[in-house]
Every structure is written in C-alpha cells, then in structure tokens.
Amino acid sequence: MQQDWEYVPEIELSLIKAVKDALLDYISNGRPDSGEKKIFLRKSAPYSPITTSVIRFEFSKYFKLAGINTSGKKHGPHSFRSSLATSMVNDNVPYEAVRKLLGHVDPDAIKHYAKLDVEKLRLCSIETIKPSGLFKSFLEGAGK
C-alpha cells in the first residue's frame, strides 16, 4: 500500500535549553560507548539503537506513573504530534507552518493530525431548521 505522504528527509529545529542540556548530559555521561550513530541506545550490551516498541513501552509506563488514564486513547509518541498540531491549528498557526514543523512534504498530510476543536467548529455552523413531518415523528419516538 502506497502512502499519500512522505517525510522531509531532514529538518533542523532549535532545542530549548533544558532539552539540549539533558541530551548533552546523556551523550557525555549516560550513553554507552558504541560506534553506533543513532543517539539512543539500549542500556545493556549489545548497544544497539532502541526500537519503537521500547519508546511505546516507556510512554505507557510514565503515563501510568503520572496517574493518566489512557484506556481507549492513543498515548504513544504520535499522540504528541497530534496534540501539538491540533493546538497549533487552534491557536491560528498557519497550516503551512504546522506542516513544515511536522516535517511533511504533502500539504494535505497535516489533516491527519490537525483537528479543530468544537468551539472553532461552532464558528462555522449554520442555523438548523426545526424538524417536521416523518423526521420529527421519528425523533419523538413514533413507531416504537
């Protein structure tokens, strides 16, 4: 199955100081010695890159430790992308900026992540007509 989107091969963004400091500390003091080019490695030998399943497991573990109920909700790494995109769109950040931040080439790719909240949708609504006839009868429970 062919995907209708693709990621930009490289994107360079600034890190906030706390994140940058934490990464430098890990690389300097916590990362095992390895010829591996990827940053995050297993804690024990063989020091291969961590997998997406490790990342998902850690997300679940820390959500649980924080007392966040995730039952029936997406709660992996992509949930943060979705939340970020939605928040940006709801704060009137242009789609193009959101698309670039997420690293997508296809202009329609952010539709998957960005969803307007109910209050934004209310701004687009039109007044509905009062139900009548058979539809009104159905709504009122006729024919039960």
- Helical/strand content category: mainly alpha
* H and E string: HHHHHH
Give the count of helical stretches. 6
Task: Specify the overall morphology.
Answer: elongated
Describe the main β-sheet briefly. Answer: none
Question: How many distinct folded domains?
Answer: 1
Residues in helix, %: 40-55%
| Averaged pLDDT | 83
State the main characteristics.
single chain, mainly alpha, 43% helix, 0% strand
Can you give a write-up of this model?
This protein has one domain (17-122). Helices cover 43% and strands 0% of the residues. It has six helices and no strands. It has helices at residues 17-30, 52-65, 77-90, 95-102, 118-122, 133-139.
Write the layout of secondary structure elements.
Layout: H1 17-30, H2 52-65, H3 77-90, H4 95-102, H5 118-122, H6 133-139
Helix pairs in contact: 3-4
Structure in a nutshell:
Helix content is 43%, strand content 0%. The protein has 144 residues and is an all-alpha fold.
